[in-house]
Structure prediction request, 567 residues.
Amino acid sequence: MIASDLAQILLFLVLLVALAVPMGRYMCKVFTGERTLLDRALLPVEKLAYRLAGINAQKEMGWREYAFTLLIFNLLGIVLVFFLQLLQGYLPFNLQQFGAVKPDQALNTAISFVTNTNWQAYGGESTMSYFTQMAALTVQNFLSAATGIAVVIALIRGLVRRKADTIGNFWVDLTRTVLWILLPFSLIGALALVSQGVIQNLSSYIDARTLEGAGQTIAVGPVASQEIIKMLGTNGGGFFNANSAHPLENPTPVTNLLEMVAILVIPAGLTFTFGHLAGNIKQGKVIFAAMLILFVLFLGVCYTSEVAGNPQVSALGVNGPSTLEGKEVRFGVANAALFATVTTAASCGAVNTMHDSLTPAGGLVPMLQMMLGEVVFGGAGSGLYGMLVFVILTVFIVGLMVGRTPEYLGKKIESRETKMATLAVLIPAAIILAGGALAAATNAGVSSILNPGPHGLSEIIYAFASAAGNNGSAFAGLNANTLFYNLVLALAMLIGRFGVILPVLAIAGSMAAKKTVPPGPGTFETTGGLFTGLLAGTVLVVGALTFFPVLALGPIVEHLLMLSGTT
Prediction:
């Protein structure tokens, strides 16, 4: 069994590396304007889009204009998705005659999908019409992912350009991301999913009769088209409430593997894109290696804990392995642990098992990965710019150790960049801890807890880590569809997204304006194994120092209680 599990995990890692390398090179071509196979079909579409929108594609933006444009675009997206939910009862493709979504839930959902979080405090198949699923949610799956990728490309330009006042054009970066990257790969991926049994139609729900004679309504709809972009864009919002545990979203081991690879292929590929754009592929390999080391470490903890299972469940004498509690039998323990690690390493809330049913140590892994800012590969774009923030902090720490002004890619890391990097790390952490404290100290927060004690605290902290980290997965024991959680978590999602993006763009603008300096005898090498270890260590140390107290009160003490036989 363990040998089979390890073989499946190894297969996933091999496929990820094999696809990430050419994906990285392809994305480099897209953003440098090099020729690709899709140019003949897409260049006319791109030019038409600019003409219709009145965009001057040749005009680049400074970081402030880039940030302002990005914010206005995303604000308009929130407004549009909000009103589409309120008006869905009057809009087409509403075969189930769903009415308006209640305002606080509609606001939460609008902010959720625009911020690439896809937190779902509702059942998709019982709340959203086909039109809302397609025109509001699926569209934002593309645009929110494209926004994240645009930001990291702007940051890379800032790092590699010499004495520049601009970091690119947001509209061009957004358009090329959608047309050349997200749309074509989503089309291919959707066809692959359909071939394996993922449904794609606009039919009415099916009323069926079970073998016991009871009636059952089977929800159907345009699932595959939403499923693939929720993975490729690290969005996570499922058509069904059960997400990728639902057999019509994820029916076979093949679709399960395809979906996991789709989650990480763009974040992993962007590290190689960075290496190509920086003119030194080793720079990208170092970041990829640090991410991979952290990923394997977290996966090992999660898998080991889940294989061991819960001794209290085993003591009940239930039929079958206790390790399968809360998991899909068709995927097993290994793929449950792997999927949980993958989806929270990226800012993707897709799940194929119920995270609330993971062992305490197994549940600690997805929680901690989100707390770290989801930089272990991370989201589409957001993972790499989050890790580059940690690169700046690591270089700064090393500079203090050797007594020299820190440098990265030939540019000095000075006070402004260090302050912005610190803000990008501290803002989500503050939201998680402050939000969790508020919820734990108020009746509105604790009244939604299903399980009291340490696990109840874990449910709350997981929710705020998921919101601030723009992940979207949940310990489903928490009833988050309340006025309190809809509003507070919406605020957490907004700050967690744009409270990081703005400092990152400020770093991009500051670094773009700097001159490059030749390496000297005190310059620290950032392409070797030592820097890889330092980078991974910095991520872990910052996370441990920030979150260990609350983790000790939640999953750690719960695991110790579990081993002692205490409920």
